[in-house]
UniProtKB/TrEMBL annotation:
PANTHER family: GLUTATHIONE S-TRANSFERASE KAPPA, THIOREDOXIN-LIKE REDUCTASE RV2466C. This is Thioredoxin domain-containing protein. InterPro entries: Thioredoxin-like_fold, Thioredoxin-like_sf. Belongs to the thioredoxin family. DsbA subfamily. Residues 53-234 form the Thioredoxin-like fold domain. Pfam families: Thioredoxin_4.
């Protein structure tokens, strides 16, 4: 499906780290949301499920405050949020049942298609550990991407989406990363060849564009677009009712 590659090429113009650092912060706090107990034997951070929009949601599905991130796995701005803000977000707000955190993959760079396909090639409970690991090692992966010879890159551009995705996953070291976490080569090959999944990446990305996503990371709090980093986001979550 060539439209997937064309879409990624057009989205790359939007760029990574496009959010404002000023942030839209509400000044008045709403009523505090009560803390909600997780299902017996579980913590809210362990409750993970796929959403109809193609994202993965962590936490109370009925949380009064819903945070959605559109992110690219190769975007340094997304990596910064993942490695500095997600831990306090989970510890202080997702764990209480007051905030749910949904991640929706949004491809910006040529390698992103493959990263999305393998990132969803795991059970729901492994989705966020895999995502966290990709962001923790992002710099080394991106450094390898920058070293791909120009002629190799040109050849890859002429490949079908699934074949190009496999090349990036192997060249950049993501295949080995996944194998170290229990995903076999056969599983990777199957996920990278899944045309319905490739089509879904394009569909979900287009839905993000229509929602107003112009760069990554892009955030929505209770379906209202939010711009800013964690320093601005935490007050906004509290203004929406999280405590």
């Amino acid at each position: 499906m060539r439209v997937t590659l064309a879409l990624i090429a057009s989205l790359a113009l939007a760029g990574c780290g496009g959010g404002s650092t000023d942030g839209n912060v509400a000044t008045a706090q709403g009523p505090a949301a009560p803390k909600v107990a997780a299902p017996a034997g579980k913590k809210w951070v362990d409750v993970v499920e796929k959403t109809p929009e193609g994202g993965m949601r962590q936490g109370n599905p009925n949380a009064p405050v819903k945070l959605v991130e559109f992110g690219s796995r190769s975007c340094p701005g997304c990596g910064y949020f993942a490695t500095t803000a997600v831990e306090p977000l989970r510890e202080k707000y997702v764990s209480t049942g007051q905030v749910s955190y949904e991640f929706r993959d949004f491809p910006l760079h040529p390698q992103d298609l493959g990263l999305i396909l393998i990132g969803h090639c795991v059970p729901a409970e492994s989705f966020f550990p895999i995502l966290d690991g990709m962001y923790a090692d992002q710099k080394s992966f991106n450094d390898r991407a920058a070293q791909i010879p120009e002629d190799t890159f040109r050849k890859m551009q002429s490949m079908a989406p699934g074949d190009q995705a496999k090349q990036f996953v192997n060249l950049l070291g993501y295949a080995e990363f996944m194998k170290q976490r229990g995903v076999s080569q056969a599983q990777l090959d199957k996920c990278l060849s899944d045309q319905s999944a490739i089509d879904a990446v394009a569909k979900n990305a287009q839905a993000g564009v229509e929602k107003g996503v112009t760069g990554t990371p892009s955030f929505f709090i209770n379906d209202v677009k939010f711009e800013g980093g964690w320093e601005q986001m935490e007050p906004a979550l509290r203004a929406a009712g999280a405590r």
